[in-house]
Amino acid sequence: MSARPAQRVEMIPVDRIHVLNPRVRNPKAFRDMVDSIAQLGLKRPITVTRRVEADGPFYDLVCGQGRLEAFRELGEMEIPALVVSADIEDCLVASLVENCARRQHRAIDLLQDIAGMRKRGHAVSDIARQTGLSGEFVNGAIRLLDKGEQRLLQSVEAGLMPISVAMEIAEADEPGVQLALQHAYENNLLRGRKLMAAKRLVEQRKLRGKHVRSWRENRKTMSSASLLSAYQEETDRKRLLVRRAEATRSRITFVTEALGRLMVDRAMIEILESEGLGDMPIELRDRLVRRQGLPS
Q: Where does the chain cross the membrane (predicted)?
């Protein structure tokens, strides 16, 4: 990239900074950032490029959207920034590279950036070179994104599923999906925790679709029908929990009664003692004493 870092930090008006590649932020993580900046200040300045216009100068953001939005949330008028010389394409690439390097980036943001570079005419090999990703990953990510397979993409980016397996699932029908999981297991691509996560993802994909709704989409007002359906679903879940609890209590009662009868059988006690099993947990002994009136 042709960007050249500035030699000093400048104070830039926040209302003159334009975010070229905006992303949706997790509200909790954003609130934590705002609180941290409010208490400790800004640890690292944002990076911008100057754009001279008639009423300018104005600035395009290279990296630091979260920090910029936190300053706006706090009502700050200016923010410390490094000013670099870069065109719009360089800024978009720098934003993508920062997204790749971020430890807890949102997978769908990274993949949308890759798709954006592809639409702007970048070849797969060029995207791979600029981002440090493999050509296989970039090509597979573009194909999955074109199919709307956000759940599969999220799993790939989290390291829970190889992109080759995700592509095989995306191309398969329902029986083929199960066959793809079987092949992945036989080839040691999915084992243990990753295999269980893949099975859960396949079920969620089947029930809820390929798309992962963002927190903003989840804020949509529910209709009366959907609200009633959600209430009924939660009611059914609670009833199932009650039935399971009652079944567990019945089993515990049965075991307690059985043990109580055994513990008053002298022949059984002698057998247990001869096998070195004459003792029992204090909690269990106390329960039998209360329920059966056994000697303590």
A: none
